DNA sequence: CCTCGCTCCTGGTCGC
DNA sequence: TGCGACCAGGAGCGAG
């Protein structure tokens, strides 16, 4: 499943191959992949066709390409299984192809193909508005409520700390809450908690500034590591913008490691086994020794 | 306003 | 071998 590092890889690919190209044709093969585009496929096609694409941006797992005209952006969310492929038109359509955007750049015709098996992702056109905390930056209106992600240079730990102190929730729930900070999914939430030696059921209002800093720094670190390795994925569904799979599972220390020894404990000569628990209807992995259950846990 | 559980969707896997 | 149950999960939405 695409996590933030994969989305950043896709953004870079889109920037290289699609930015400053002209849209010559748009084909919607499955209306369900037009997420949130209430006006329907005809409107999407009519407004996108003929446009010149501008720069590519990202916040959390939202990716968008600004259009040269009209303060509009083509917003892309990969969801669970979305892929963006840049292909020559003579290459056969892949399975689950949902939207085809034919582009022309330097007299070369290519296709930006949106492929999605589970249809949790999708595309839509949205208006660009100034970001509230930094009005020089433009952001799609539907993405404006999303917090900055840990890779954003304007990400502010102090703001997050104050937000968490006011909340009555659990730490993992807050990590996954996209209005607090964006781009942290189930996998990186578990990895960040493990590295910060904090338990997911820790009540947010009891967190110290130091602990908040630790867990978000950990999230940033593990995502930068993934990015340096070309994206995290152990799901063959994920393919980057040029159609190449990314692999990174060896760098995950807890996620998916139920019953396997904790790598930190192992260095101390202890054999603690990673535990899996149901939390928020999702799997959570943690080390019972490194991440003890807090005295006043909030499930 | 805040918190939290439900829901969308498909394909792979497992037990009987 | 067939079939149903279950699992994976981002994020919007609405109930309380």
Automatic annotation (TrEMBL):
SMART domains, sorted: Fapy_DNA_glyco, H2TH
InterPro entries reported for this sequence: FPG_cat, FPG_Glyclase, FPG_N, H2TH_FPG, Ribosomal_uS13-like_H2TH, Znf_DNA_glyclase/AP_lyase
Gene Ontology MF annotations: 8-oxo-7,8-dihydroguanine DNA N-glycosylase activity; class I DNA-(apurinic or apyrimidinic site) endonuclease activity; damaged DNA binding; double-stranded DNA binding; zinc ion binding
Entry EC no(s): 3.2.2.23, 4.2.99.18
Name of the gene encoding the protein in the UniProt record: mutM
CDD domains per UniProt: EcFpg-like_N
Protein name: Formamidopyrimidine-DNA glycosylase
Species annotation: Enteractinococcus coprophilus
Domain FPG-type: 253-292
Function summary: Involved in base excision repair of DNA damaged by oxidation or by mutagenic agents. Acts as DNA glycosylase that recognizes and removes damaged bases. Has a preference for oxidized purines, such as 7,8-dihydro-8-oxoguanine (8-oxoG). Has AP (apurinic/apyrimidinic) lyase activity and introduces nicks in the DNA strand. Cleaves the DNA backbone by beta-delta elimination to generate a single-strand break at the site of the removed base with both 3'- and 5'-phosphates.
A Pfam entry, by short name: Fapy_DNA_glyco
């Amino acid at each position: 499943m695409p996590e933030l590092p994969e989305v950043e890889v896709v953004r870079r690919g889109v920037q290289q191959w699609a930015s400053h190209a002209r849209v010559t044709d748009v084909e919607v093969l499955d209306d369900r992949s037009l997420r949130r585009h209430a006006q329907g496929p005809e409107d999407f096609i009519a407004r996108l066709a003929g446009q010149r694409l501008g720069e590519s941006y990202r916040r959390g797992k939202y990716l968008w390409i600004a259009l040269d005209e009209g303060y509009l952006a083509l917003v892309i969310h990969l969801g669970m299984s979305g892929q963006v492929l840049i292909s020559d038109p003579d290459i056969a359509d892949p399975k689950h192809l949902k939207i085809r955007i034919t582009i022309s750049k330097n007299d070369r015709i290519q296709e930006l193909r949106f492929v999605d098996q589970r249809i949790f992702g999708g595309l839509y056109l949205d208006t660009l508005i100034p970001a509230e905390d930094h009005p020089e930056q433009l952001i799609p209106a539907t993405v404006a409520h999303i917090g900055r992600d840990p890779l954003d240079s304007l990400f502010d730990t102090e703001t997050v700390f104050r937000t968490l102190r006011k909340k009555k929730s659990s730490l993992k729930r807050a990590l996954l809450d996209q209005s607090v900070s964006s781009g942290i999914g189930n996998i990186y939430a578990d990895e960040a908690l493990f590295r910060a030696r904090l338990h997911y059921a820790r009540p947010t209002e009891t967190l110290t500034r130091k602990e908040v800093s630790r867990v978000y720094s950990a999230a940033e670190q593990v995502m930068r590591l993934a990015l340096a390795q070309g994206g995290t994925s152990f799901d063959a569904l994920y393919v980057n913008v040029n159609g190449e799979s990314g692999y990174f599972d060896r760098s995950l220390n807890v996620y998916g490691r139920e019953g396997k020894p904790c790598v930190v404990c192992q260095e101390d000569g202890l054999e603690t086994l990673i535990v899996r628990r149901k939390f928020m209807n999702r799997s959570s992995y943690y080390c019972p020794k490194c991440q003890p259950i807090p005295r006043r846990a909030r499930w």
